[in-house]
Write a structure and sequence with these properties.
Strand 11, helix 14 and strand 12 (about 415-420) form a beta-alpha-beta unit. The chain has 15 helices and 14 strands. The chain has helices at about 20, 45-50, 70-85, 95-100, 110-125, 140-145, 155-170, 190-195, 205-230, 250-275, 280-285, 295-300, 350-365, 390-410, 460-470, and strands spanning about 10-15, 90-95, 130-135, 175-180, 235-240, 245, 305-310, 315-320, 340-345, 350, 370-375, 415-420, 440-445, 455. It is globular. By secondary structure, it is an alpha/beta fold.
Length: about 475
């Protein structure tokens, strides 16, 4: 099968997130954050959904983020492994509470700035471009307890102060930025997505969409600040991507899929186009939502992003008959099971053509460069008798999705780069498991936090090294 050539300047690499990789949760002056309150086990989902308040740690629970994979102490070793694979880009995030432990301070924590400067300098040492997310499911806990997190307009001030600090402190080291990771996930996982917890009887939809408005204002202001500090800065938004297919050609199913697609893309519409889309009025009306805007908000939103980044793991299916009883519990974004595609061990659909469809849909809609910043297969990896991890299933998944990217480039779409998710095994955001592995590098750590944390190259490590060296031409 022929593959369209990737551009010469195409960026190849991988992605991690501070809250799933760093650990060191109270080191270097770091404050507590939302993810530090999310336990592994039976209570995890209730906390993630904002249904159960968790503002203190419990001695009878295990919190995977506290140590994670110890990237905080091992980043030099890990970046050397990335360089060995040939990475030209590395996506990571800054833990907001490393720079502002409480979130509302006037001055940043110098230890936090020093850590990230050293991290980004290490990337530059190997000619690896850092792609940095400002807020990746990570809100200082103090801002949740004292202000109610993003339901409060004051968060805009706190976030833009933090963003300005990042743009100034890391100027010359970082030029590619993302504001909020998977901003649409706050609709589905409100506490992990945006630090939201709910009171009995309140309109949760109102809270979520008002909080999203505050994030959109903060994102637009951060974009403006980034361009003011250095016109060469490139700022993107980030979508939890994957098209909704109609479950059948029944018109009601097609309409249901369109509605789901609009709900999924609403916030990206604002960030990429600079205004709320026309359909927002009916969506808000149907949900009983009244967005409270401050004077000048519509003008602020006009500061649109330079590019659109997105994750893609699976496509979704929607029908007019969707309900809690017939949707998959495998992913936080609910979907009907598609009978035409295979699924992963965790029930996520495997649909490479869906990636090409998603890329085409996004570019048709926004006419801005795209960046695929998360994609991969979560699977249980078992070392063989020689201690090797032969993850051919991961190679097969990635091969077909890279082919789909090539096809999309052949469709004429400007795709900036590709960062495979969890390039080094990390804590899964959905389940808190280590056994749900994505990486090219195995980390000796189990779901209970036991293990040496030693790194080991998988078979996919050598395969991806070959892919990068050939600029995507050699996928065998």
């Amino acid at each position: 099968m022929s593959l369209t050539k990737f551009p010469k300047d195409f960026l190849w690499g991988g992605a991690l997130a501070a809250n799933q990789a760093e650990g060191g949760y109270r080191e270097g002056g770091k404050g507590l954050t939302t993810v530090d309150m999310i336990p592994h086990g039976a209570s995890r989902m209730a906390v993630k959904l904002g249904q159960e308040k968790r503002f203190t740690l419990r001695s009878d629970e295990y919190y995977p983020s506290h140590d994670a994979i110890d990237f905080y102490h091992r980043y030099k070793e890990d970046i050397a492994l990335m360089a060995e694979m040939g990475f030209t880009v590395f996506r990571t995030s800054i833990a907001w509470s490393r720079l502002y432990p409480k979130g509302d301070e006037r001055e940043p924590n110098p230890e936090g700035i020093a850590f990230y400067r050293a991290l980004f300098e290490e990337c530059r040492k190997y000619q690896i471009e850092p792609l940095v997310t400002l807020c990746h499911f990570d809100v200082p806990l103090h801002l949740v307890v004292e202000y109610g997190s993003w339901r409060n307009r004051q968060m805009v001030e706190f976030f833009t102060r933090y963003a300005r600090t990042c743009f100034e402190a890391f100027d010359g080291l970082v030029k590619c930025w993302l504001t909020f990771n998977e901003i649409n996930i706050m609709l589905h996982s409100p506490f992990s997505g945006a630090g939201l917890v709910f009171e009995t009887g309140e309109n949760q939809e109102q809270v979520k969409y008002q909080a999203a408005h505050h994030e959109l204002i903060a994102s637009a202001l951060a974009t403006r600040i980034a361009h003011e500090i250095n016109p060469r800065n490139q700022v993107g938004c980030m979508l939890a991507g994957g098209n909704f297919y109609p479950y059948s050609c029944k018109p009601e199913d097609v309409w249901a899929a369109l509605q789901k697609e609009r709900e999924n893309l609403l916030f990206i519409d604002v960030q990429a186009r600079g205004a709320y889309p026309s359909y927002a009025a009916s969506l808000f009306r149907d949900k009983g939502i009244q967005i409270v805007k401050a004077a000048g908000d519509d003008e602020i939103l006009k500061h649109s992003v330079d590019f659109v980044s997105f994750s893609y793991y699976a496509s979704r299916c929607a029908s007019a008959d969707m309900n809690a009883g017939n949707t998959s519990a495998a992913n936080v974004v609910k979907s009907l099971r598609n009978p035409h595609i295979e699924v992963s061990e965790w029930g996520w659909g495997i649909d490479p053509l869906g990636l090409r469809i998603t890329i085409n849909t996004l570019y048709d809609r926004y006419q801005k460069p795209l960046f695929l910043v998360e994609n991969g297969l979560g699977a249980v990896d078992e070392p063989n008798d020689q201690g090797e991890i032969e993850d051919d299933y991961r190679i097969a998944y990635l091969r077909e999705h890279i082919r789909a990217m090539g096809d999309a480039i052949g469709d004429g779409i400007p795709l900036m780069g590709y960062t495979s998710w969890g390039c080094i095994d990390l804590v899964a955001a959905s389940t808190g498991e280590m056994s749900k592995r994505y990486g090219f590098v195995y980390v000796d750590r189990d779901d209970a936090g036991r293990g040496t944390l030693a790194r080991r190259r998988k078979k996919s490590f050598w395969w991806y090294k070959k892919v990068i060296a050939s600029n995507g031409e050699d996928l065998a």
